Amino acid sequence: EVQLVESGGGLIQPGGSLRLSCVASGFTVSSNYMSWVRQAPGKGLEWVSVVYSGGSTYYADSVKGRFTISRDNSKNTLYLQMNSLRAEDTAVYYCARDNYGNNPFDFWGQGTLVTVSS
Amino acid sequence: DIQMTQSPSTLSASVGDRVTITCRASQSISSWLAWYQQKPGKAPKLLIYKASSLESGVPSRFSGSGSGTEFTLTISSLQPDDFATYYCQQYNSLWTFGQGTKVEIK
């Protein structure tokens, strides 16, 4: 059974850093395109970042230079390192799988809440 | 960047109604469009991909159409479980979501 479980969210002060994790089961992270998508409270969905199966990475302009996506193939885990956090980064962060590459997201995690506030 | 615009933002409907949601892309995306359903506190669920292909397990009352820049999601007969927020997503160039359409009880 395919499953994605995020962790690492919490309350962090502006300017701080946080690393989110997404543990996958039932499939191999490195064989898929894996993305992070966020949703601010009461707002819509925003794609944040992707790591392709080949290792290329891309970011939304809103996080470029501050966030870094990575994966640990031995742990079948996806990460999002978030630095220089701002209040507007407050959101539920979901990891999501694109099974075929440049396709929609067929599986999502349950999300982890990041709150940036002093 | 490709922008996606959904309409309406909110839709009030009754059980049994036929419901249509529109999504427009700022440039042609061919048929690289998906629709998701999201309920409060839950992750989005993929309903339709490639504009009109039904994801496995999704009821046939959901259908999608369109190509280029204009797309629609139709629910042929609204059921109690369908009250939720719906998002379109383009995947022609990375990924972009529409702002969402909330389908609420009339």
From TrEMBL, chain B:
PROSITE patterns: IG_LIKE. Keywords: Adaptive immunity, Cell membrane, Immunity, Immunoglobulin, Immunoglobulin domain, Membrane, Secreted. It is found in: Cell membrane; Secreted. It comes from the Eukaryota. This is IGL c1411_light_IGKV1-5_IGKJ1. The keyword Membrane applies. It comes from Homo sapiens. CDD domains: IgV_L_kappa. One of its GO terms (biological process) is adaptive immune response. Its main location: membrane.
